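BUG-284 | component: ligand-complex export | severity: low

The export step for 4'-deoxy-4'-aminopyridoxal-5'-phosphate jobs runs without errors, but we want the raw record kept on the ticket for reference. Input record follows.
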Amino acid sequence: RTVYLNGDYLPETEAKVSIFDRGFIMADAVYEVTSVIDSKLVDFAGHMARLERSLGELGIAKPLTTDEWLAVHRALIEKNEIADGAVYLQVTRGNGGDRDFVYPPSDTAPTVVAYTWQKPLLVDNPDAQRGWTVISLPDIRWHRRDIKTVQLLYPSMAKMEAKAKGADDAWLVEDGTVTEGTSNNVYIVKNGRIITRELSKDILHGITRAAVLRFAAEAQMEVEERPFTIAEAQAADEAFATSASSFVMPVVSIDGTPVGTGKPGPVARRLREIYVEESRKAAI
Ligand code: PMP
């Protein structure tokens, strides 16, 4: 693979970052994952807007303009011949010298990394036919989940626990209600109404979430933004999750209880179809 590091395109084996980098020492870094369909970027502007916000919230300098980011994304797609897959990018606060809780001087150059991966069955994902099973786990993450940091150890542990229990993902619960999946926003459908938690610092403001809610409104589907419990989700007609890498993913059981028929439901299927179709059209 050819990857991007601080202005250069390099073979992945030659891309090296300092052991003093604050991304490595302190998870002092933010990231984005943008899907690629037919060699084009899905929701690129949304991902760039969120990146800028994440950087701003942490006071990390903005290393590239949106046009420069677009050029990097396109170059990586071309150099790596990506048809379906994703572009990952990460910006860290840079080399902080000896480990220190105090940030390095504000003129420290951020470290900028980007690379691609292929995902041939991105659109025709067999998981979407089958639907995911999920377990619930406590949400013990920090309280700025609206910032897309690389501090992903707990989501990773939760995913491992889900896999160990034979499930596909975990839905995280705080104060009795569901916040998110390990790496996706979550929804239930009851009597035709789509219910999903409102935006706040408790959840990541999903770019796919924004698109799906827009498509739902355009298709005259009713949407209610509020928290829900695991019990309410288990008693719902349908459940699903959204993210840039899984699009719209039906969820067919929660803690061993089938949701609705226990099969992917019509609302999730329809939203997935619309999402793929519209994303294909709008991709750049
Ligand atoms: N919540 C969390 C915790 C995530 O990690 C992700 C995926 N990055 C999402 C939600 C979905 O966001 P998006 O639709 O922008 O991929």
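Assignee comment: Attached the raw record above. Residues 33, 180, 183-185, 204, 206-209, 242-244 surround 4'-deoxy-4'-aminopyridoxal-5'-phosphate (CB under 6 Å).
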